[in-house]
Amino acid sequence: MKKTLRKRHRREKYFKSLGLASLCLALLFLGTIFGNILITGIPAFFRTEILAKAAPSDFLNPHAKYALDEEKKWMTASDEVDMYYKNDETGNLTPEQVKTIQSLEAHDQIRLTFNGAFLTHSDSREPEVAGIWGGLLGSLLTLIVTFLTAFPLGIGAAIYLEEFAPKNRLVHLIEANVNNLAAVPSILFGLLGLVAFIHFMGFPRPSALVGGLTLGLMSLPVVIVTTRASLAAVPYALKEAAMGLGAMPLQVLFHHVIPAALPGIVTGIILSLARALGETAPLLMIGMVAFIATPPSSILDPTTVLPVQIFNWSRSPEMGFVENTSGAILVLLFVLVLLNSIAITIRKKFELQNVL
Amino acid sequence: MRSLWLEKTVRFFFFLCALSAVVISIGIGVTLLGEALRFFARVSIIDFLFGLTWAPHTLPSGEDVGFGAVPLFTGTILITLIAMAVGLPCGLMVAIYLSEYATPRMRNIFKPVLETLAGIPTLVYGFFAITTLAPFLRRVGEVFHLSLSTESALSAGIVMGIMVLPYMSSLCEDALHRLPNSLRECSIGLGATASETIIRVLLPAAFPSIMAAFLLSLSRAIGETMIVVMAAGLAANLTFNPLEAVTTVTVQIVSLLTGDQEFDNAKTLAAFGLGFVLFILTFFLNILALQGVKRHRRIYG
Questions:
Q1: List of chain B residues whose C-beta atoms are within 8 Å of the C-beta of residue A277
Q2: Do B14 and A325 count as a contact with CB atoms less than 8 A apart?
Q3: Is A299 helix (H, G, I), strand (E, B) or coil?
């Protein structure tokens, strides 16, 4: 009896520690991913500069070279010098060049500065002057279109399904459809976007309009599901009270139900926009892979978005693009964390209100 | 009277919004089926589904050859299996721990952390696979005198497992948490330990939902694109060796459509054929999963 009991308790302990171990493993994964990207990404926010009068011209960035005669004291160094100075990676440098860099170092003629250009420049073939401004702007334009597509359609559909829908087969079909659509792989929305928006409607190919519409269709089911959940959470007594005072169903909806459900709805929208922001696969389908060096000025211009730019950089052979990729991922993750924490704050505040 | 008219119009507008979801589904189905049919007019469906070599090109005679998709299917299955082997047990154990053992404070800390893990774009996972995990696995492989290819199925699969983990754990956690407390109390009252309660009572009771979580994770892994595009490569090897490079359905869709953009050639149409297969597969997995969730809800409210 005692023996079996001890055995059972031991098994209990094993089981519990197995659970804890899996949790630790998950946290380890998260830590490794974040740590890794932080370590490789942070150097992207710094760049190497050389004192102009001391710099051999083959050490300078090709664009900086043309500016030599202007009165600029410090010039941007070339990719290879940059890599050597930051990570001690020799790359294609000859031993003499390495020696020159070391002598520059000894004379304080080479330095690291904050790379503001990484945030304000657009894409370039040269990693040391490439920046993410074009991608950021493109992502913003795309998300605006996504929002304008998914928000009205999603809210409308959710209101119908939650508040007005009769219980018939058509409504049942729509409900099953929304749930199913939420689990369709995103790449298939890209194929739909390619045929529907580009070949059928003839919208300009790598534009924010097409990208936004495609992502909007992709976000729609998620918006519907979260909006329905927050509409369903509104206490029925609120509706009854309003109806008892003689309000029309639409008045009940717009004056009482929607305001009460708004924080939940906004949270859902922000989270689905965050998901759309990180999405890449459907955008590759609609041709958003091109190299575009000018930031878009309208939603019809050829556009690149941040995730696609990251994808393109990650495939570039130049050493410098590795840290650029990590740097851009850092910016992307920062924006995502920002959006998520806004959503969580709204949710927390709303929960507090309910308690009071 | 005017407001009654308004009432009806607005309601109709909401109805149209709801209908748009159906229109999108039909749109996906019809476009995929339409283009896939055009593809099958050129390449026979038997050759496509059962052919063993994938090297799509058009002969000078105008014949389209090399559209045997079996290597893509086996590649997808291999990577998905690895992902499931990593993500499934870990996800389930994390869910059990958070739902049954963790203090409320721990839950409040770790649930958002797992949500963060779920919110990372898959592109980032892919980048992690090529820059960190693949070189690491190669080094480990060298110790055991195994040669891993840079784009091994193993690294893509493991990273995909990490991606699936938080998804699986949050679905399972919900399922376990929704079970009535009376189940736990009864079992513990009869003298069972916590782990016995979980294994013999709670898991069987939550089985339909856990199955659903499994199927949804599976469908997600099959449809996942960016991780495999970055980490798995293009080589269509017909192999079940996880140390070799394989390719998947989604990788080939991307590579077929980002190359030349002539809409009328067999290669572009093949992407829609593959997309159609993917759609059908994930569609059935999702339907099956949602059925499971529904059953569970009916039993335990």
A1: 121
A2: no
A3: coil
Q: How many residues does chain B have?
A: 301
| Rounded Cα distance, A329 and A312, in Å | 12
Structural domains of chain A, ranges and CATH numbers in brackets = 43-115 (no CATH), 133-355 (1.10.3720.10)
Place of tokens 């004056």: A255
Q: Is B150 on the interface with A (CB under 8 A)?
A: no
Domain B70-300 architecture? Orthogonal Bundle (1.10)
Let me know: does A76 contact A60? Beta carbons within 8 Å.
yes
Are A220 and B20 inside 8 Å of each other by CB? yes
A223: distance to nearest CA of chain B, Å?
11
Please state the domain extents for chain B. Answer: 70-300
In the 8-state DSSP scheme, what is residue A91?
A: T
Whole-number pLDDT of residue A71: 56
Which residue has better confidence, B204 or A348? B204
Chain B environment of A36 (Cβ under 8 Å): 128, 131-132
Amino acid in the structure at residue A179: N
Distance CA B235, CA B54 (A): 9
Average of per-residue pLDDT values in chain A: 83
Rounded-to-integer distance, Cα A159 and Cα A181, Å: 18
Split at pLDDT 50, 70, 90, the class of A20 is very high
The fraction of chain A above a pLDDT of 70, given in percent, is 91
Average pLDDT over residues B123-151: 85
B231–chain A Cβ distance below 8 A for any pair? no
**B18, B90, B116 member nearest A25 (Cβ):** B90
Residue A219, phi then psi, degrees to nearest 5: -80, -20
Number of C-beta neighbours around residue B25 at 10 A? 22
Pick the residue with more confidence: A39 or A102? A39
pLDDT > 90? residue A144? yes
pLDDT per residue as tens digits for the range B264-286: 677 888 888 999 999 999 989 88
**Does the beta carbon of B119 lie under 8 angstroms from any beta carbon of chain A?**
yes
CA pair distance B248, A159, nearest whole angstrom = 39
**Residues of chain B with C-beta less than 8 angstroms from the C-beta of A157:** 14, 17-18, 20-21
A334 touching B, CB under 8 A?
no
CA distance B108 to B188: 25
Q: Using a CB–CB cutoff of 8 Å, tell me whether B117 touches chain A.
A: yes
Q: Is the pLDDT of residue A69 over 60?
A: no
Q: What is the pLDDT of residue B263?
A: 59
Residue of chain A whose Cα is closest to the Cα of B254: A285
Q: ∠ at Cα B150 (B149, B151), nearest 5°?
A: 90
Residues A279, B19: C-beta atoms closer than 8 Å: no
Q: What is the 3-state secondary structure (H, E, C) of A38-90?
A: HHHHHHHHEEEEEEHHHCCHHHECHHHHHCCCCCCCEEEECHHHHHHHHHCCC
Q: How far apart are the CA of A236 and the nearest CA of chain B, in angstroms?
A: 18
Instruction: Write down the pLDDT at residue A187.
Output: 92
Local confidence band at A218 (pLDDT 50, 70, 90 cut-offs):
very high
Contact of B257 with A285, CB cutoff 8 Å? yes
Q: Which two tokens stand for residue B153?
A: 């199925």
User: Rounded to an integer, what distance in angstroms lies between the CA atom of residue A47 and that of residue B291?
Assistant: 55
Nearest CA in chain B to A31: B117
Measured between beta carbons, the chain B residues lying within 8 angstroms of A155 are: 17
What residues 210-239 of chain A have any CB closer than 8 A to a CB of chain B? 217, 220-221, 224
Instruction: Confirm or reject contact between B219 and chain A (CB < 8 A).
Output: yes
